[in-house]
Amino acid sequence: MMHMTFYWSKKVTLLFDSWKTDSWTSYTLSLLACLIVSIFYQLLENRRIRLKLLASGKPFPAEIEAPLLRRTFAGSGAKLGVRVAGAVLFGLSSAIGYFLMLSVMSYNGGVFIAIVVGLAVGYLLFRSDGEDSVVVDSSCACA
């Protein structure tokens, strides 16, 4: 039976029936996986925002400059490629965001804390560098 309130236990089922924890080792590894996926989610969002800024031609911080990235795109094919890459990043980021949301809905306190800490650490590492001036569209409330 699914829990409908927060509980603290090493026994949790995450996302799939086959992902069940029954020992402290499997529970700890699952929490670590949740933490890493949460950090990766913030990295993907950072890359999507940077790609969006690069494609729009708007000014952005100097640290985004890279020798392999050009501010101007030669033709419509390059612009289409950037739009497709942005759409792929958005889709992947949305899928991971929804998986994180469903994991939190397991109502396990440790899973909740691992995901929130992972999102905070990921934000600190990848997204706290002056993106305040950027309006970002997102499909997930945790973005």
Automatic annotation (TrEMBL):
It is found in: Membrane. One of its GO terms (molecular function) is copper ion transmembrane transporter activity. The keyword Cytoplasm does not apply. The chain crosses the membrane at residues 24-44, 80-101, 107-126. It holds the Pfam family Ctr. GO terms for cellular component: plasma membrane. Keywords: Copper, Copper transport, Ion transport, Membrane, Transmembrane, Transmembrane helix, Transport. It is a multi-pass membrane protein. It comes from the Eukaryota. The keyword Metal-binding does not apply. Belongs to the copper transporter (Ctr) (TC 1.A.56) family. SLC31A subfamily. This is Copper transport protein. It comes from Pisum sativum (Garden pea).
